[in-house]
Write a structure and sequence with these properties.
With 93 residues, this protein is mainly alpha-helical. It is 73% helix and 0% strand. The chain is globular.
């Protein structure tokens, strides 16, 4: 295991704990709520799921469009990253 893999593992673990799946985000301090809502793309999908399944209502416009925006941002980042390294990527297939 190289250092890159261990850093990746640590980042994914922190991301998992910062995604409000088993706790309510409203119980967090305001600064932490801002960080989670602004920088965690999974927040929007968890909030949409909660609204639909737990509360039985359609998600609000901020949550709905935030999910769409995050999806397109991640699509752009993934496409850009792949295009940048596609020549090296084919060697590992």
């Amino acid at each position: 295991m190289c250092i890159r893999d261990s850093i990746y593992s640590a980042v994914l673990t922190a991301w998992m704990y910062l995604t409000p799946i088993i706790y309510l985000i409203e119980r967090m301090p305001a600064k932490v709520q801002f960080v989670i809502k602004a920088f965690n793309p999974m927040y929007y999908y968890v909030a949409q799921f909660r609204d639909l399944v737990y509360y039985g209502r359609f998600p609000g416009p901020r949550i709905f469009w935030g999910g769409w925006l995050m999806a397109f941002v991640m699509l752009f980042i993934g496409t850009w990253s792949f295009q940048r390294s596609k020549d090296k990527f084919i060697l590992y297939i």
